[in-house]
Fold:
Amino acid sequence: MKRVLIVVFCVIALCSLLAVPLLLQSAPAPAPTPAPSDLQRAVENAIDFFEESHQPYEPYTLLMLNVVYRRFGIAAFADALQQYDQITDENPDQAPLLRVFRRIAEYNNTLKAGDLQAVKDEGDRITAPALYCDRLELPSDYPATLEQAAGLGNYMLTHVLLASIWIKENGCEVPMPNGFIEGIYDSSAVLISGRYPVVNDLELEAAAFLYLAGQGALVDHAFVERVIAVQNYDGGWLSSSDKPGDSDWHTTILALLLLLHVEFPANSYPPMLAPASP
Structure:
């Protein structure tokens, strides 16, 4: 009997030893954390991209650079709002819409009569009401608009995510189904595909907005590694890393926002929207 037990024990032990390597092979390896030196270098190169570019700034990029300045103290972008105002003054045809979104950088932003009528883009119709929800009454169908837009996915989904950030920061209440916001976070994370080497503008928008919403844990390190790896020679990012061309303003500011949050993790940050003056 004793000999039988010894044999059984040996068989079990042998099977265990054989099973462990198989389990290790089938289990996915944890995504590596970006090397601090690579991350820091990518951020510095992206800042240089904006500092050294001789092309006129895309105006809405300046508003996001203002967010970078207020949230992370990047002194190079301290005058972003002043540059935005200069572009507004020089482009009267665009001025009404530019004045609407100026509130990102100026709490007491003043609108002129008819400015809100310039909000015609579908994405802007989602975000602009949230931007002023503490000052102006939301449309009665706004909750339904958010639900419908979220269901469309892609940039409409990320605009709903951005609107949810502004609604929260403005202290507004919008009646939504239970779990709606959590669903927005999860759906936005799905947009960030970890299976392909290509990094595109939509993925970066979802990742950057998730960090702005305090949901950076939903963005895996593997995606951040890919973002660093496909940075363009000039410090910017292409709108899609598999298509040749020039670095894109919109894509690059999103990548910079993402990487700054990764480089400087914190339990809380200054709000995305400029707060009221004390």
